[in-house]
């Protein structure tokens, strides 16, 4: 996507094709002009579409660019836009010129809100092009942009502006179409990537007192080696008191570049809650790996009296490391003569689509169909393996329950429908949509 080079004026331009012009212009702050433009499309795909039960996040970073128009008038108008200007356009089915409508909105005086205005236009455009329900829950989606932009104009903080986008998306009536703010996105990436730089502490706010409490340490992490224990209260980080600080803000302070240090002050409360001791620990930051896999071998005796081993694998989420961690766990158990497997997907909420498909291919051979997706035009697309080779052909049981959702349902469905596994448990969540 190209970026518009713009002087310091204050009117971002939004472009609509004739087929979906707003019916009315309710505010005097809008400026309209029509002109012809050449076909040009930006493929910023974000969709909620019917298909199988899964969820994916594929965006690597926020994008606030502009789609440059080819016509002379288009270049002139964009040249007059502010730094916040974003042009959103629909693609044309024909290379012929198509008339469009330009609507100008005032840019906020607060720079951080101006940045969110760009995100608003991008989010609106993605929904307009790819949302599964082309009626947008029976509402005028073009007018929603106008209304939200006007409401956002007087705001002074990015958080408040993001709230307006969330409110706009909520009118679609789809809980899976939502805005992930930059802070939330950073936390999401930590979960999906399975790696971060920090000390390896899980912390949470104690509901009764509001104090930050250590839930656990990741085994082998710097916090684990420093002797930090479950139940200790986190009082200070680098001399800053944690009173009134939530767990996410505290976690941000604990993360940092590998090789740097963080000084943590902890309060150890005894079992009765009457005595305590305060200590200070200087902990180095390191690469921390979050594995979604845990496994064990269950020895048992078969009905005919033979000794046997069953491998138990618990998969808690579909992060980028899920397939590689699972293949390592299965290889290790194969080396210990395991004869059968249990794959536990109970309460697994899903994650990355690709991770779910990759895990399915560890258990299947050939070119089996893993899942079908259906877009909003009703086009069905099968996703097949390509020359798959299963790690093991030993019998497999998959455990599921009401909390098994999204990519868990893709995996369970693929293994069951291809005759590879027996499903045991309760009816799963039933998400039925893919997000991008």
How would you explain this protein's 3D organization?
By secondary structure, the protein is of the alpha+beta class. The chain is 25% helix and 26% strand. It has ten helices and 20 strands. The strands form seven sheets. A five-stranded mixed beta sheet has the order 13-14-15-18-19, with helices on one face. It has a four-stranded antiparallel beta sheet with strand order 9-8-10-11, covered by helices on one side. It has a three-stranded antiparallel beta sheet with strand order 1-4-2, with helices on one face. Strand 13 and strand 14 (307-315) form a beta hairpin. The longest helix has 20 residues, at 111-130. It starts with 12 loop residues before the first strand and ends with a strand. Mean pLDDT is 77; it is low at 1-99.
Architecture blueprint of SSEs:
Layout: E1 13-17, E2 31-37, E3 48-50, H1 72-79, E4 98-104, H2 111-130, H3 141-152, H4 158-170, H5 182-193, E5 195-198, E6 201-205, E7 212-217, H6 222-225, E8 233-237, E9 240-241, H7 247-254, E10 261-269, E11 276-284, E12 286-289, E13 293-301, E14 307-315, H8 322-334, E15 340-344, H9 353-361, E16 369-374, E17 380-384, E18 396-400, H10 407-417, E19 422-425, E20 433-435
Parallel strand pairs: 14-15, 15-18, 18-19
Antiparallel strand pairs: 1-4, 2-4, 3-20, 5-12, 6-7, 8-9, 8-10, 10-11, 13-14, 16-17
Strand-pairing-aware structural class: alpha+beta
Measured by DSSP, the beta-strand proportion falls in 25-35%
How would you classify the quaternary structure? single chain
Shape: flat
Mean pLDDT: 77
Please count the helical segments: 10
User: Helical amount among residues, as a percent range?
Assistant: 25-40%
Biggest sheet descriptor: 5 strands, mixed
Number of strands: 20
Cα Rg: 26 Å
């Amino acid at each position: 996507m190209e970026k518009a080079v713009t002087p310091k004026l204050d009117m971002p331009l939004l472009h609509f094709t004739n087929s979906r012009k707003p019916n009315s212009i309710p505010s005097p702050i809008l400026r309209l002009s029509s002109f012809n433009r050449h076909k040009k499309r930006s493929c910023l795909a974000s969709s909620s579409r019917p298909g199988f039960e899964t969820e994916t996040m594929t965006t690597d970073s926020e994008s606030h660019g502009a789609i440059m128009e080819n016509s002379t008038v288009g270049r002139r108008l964009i040249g007059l836009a502010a730094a916040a200007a974003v042009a959103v356009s629909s693609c044309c089915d024909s290379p012929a010129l198509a008339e469009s409508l330009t609507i100008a909105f005032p840019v906020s005086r607060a720079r951080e809100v101006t940045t969110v205005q760009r995100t608003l236009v991008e989010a609106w455009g993605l929904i307009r092009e790819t949302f599964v329900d082309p009626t947008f829950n029976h509402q005028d989606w073009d007018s929603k942009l106008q209304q939200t932009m006007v409401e956002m104009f007087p705001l002074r903080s990015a958080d408040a502006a993001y709230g307006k986008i969330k409110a706009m998306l909520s009118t679609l009536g789809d809980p899976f179409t939502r805005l992930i703010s930059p802070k939330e996105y950073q936390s999401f990436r930590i979960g999906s990537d399975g790696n971060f730089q920090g000390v390896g502490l899980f912390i949470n706010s104690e509901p009764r007192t509001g104090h930050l409490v250590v839930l656990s340490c990741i085994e082998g992490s710097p916090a684990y080696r420093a002797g930090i224990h479950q139940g200790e209260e986190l009082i200070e980080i680098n001399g800053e008191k944690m009173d009134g600080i939530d767990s996410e803000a505290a976690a941000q302070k604990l993360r940092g570049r590998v090789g740097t240090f963080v000084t943590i002050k902890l309060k150890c409360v005894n079992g009765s809650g009457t005595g305590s001791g305060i200590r200070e620990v200087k902990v180095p930051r390191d690469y921390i790996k979050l594995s979604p896999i845990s496994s064990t071998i269950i020895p048992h005796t078969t009905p005919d009296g033979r000794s046997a081993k069953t491998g138990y694998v618990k998969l808690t989420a579909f992060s980028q490391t899920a397939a590689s961690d699972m293949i390592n766990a299965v290889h290790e158990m194969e080396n210990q003569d395991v004869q059968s497997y249990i794959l536990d997907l109970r309460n697994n909420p899903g994650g990355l689509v690709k991770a779910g498909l990759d895990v399915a291919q560890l258990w299947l051979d050939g070119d089996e169909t893993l899942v079908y997706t259906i877009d909003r035009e009703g086009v069905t697309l099968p996703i097949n393996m390509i020359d798959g080779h299963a790690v093991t052909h030993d019998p497999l049981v998959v455990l599921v329950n009401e909390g098994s959702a999204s990519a868990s349902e893709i995996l369970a469905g693929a293994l069951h429908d291809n005759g590879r596994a027996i499903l045991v448990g309760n009816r799963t969540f039933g998400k039925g949509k893919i997000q991008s």
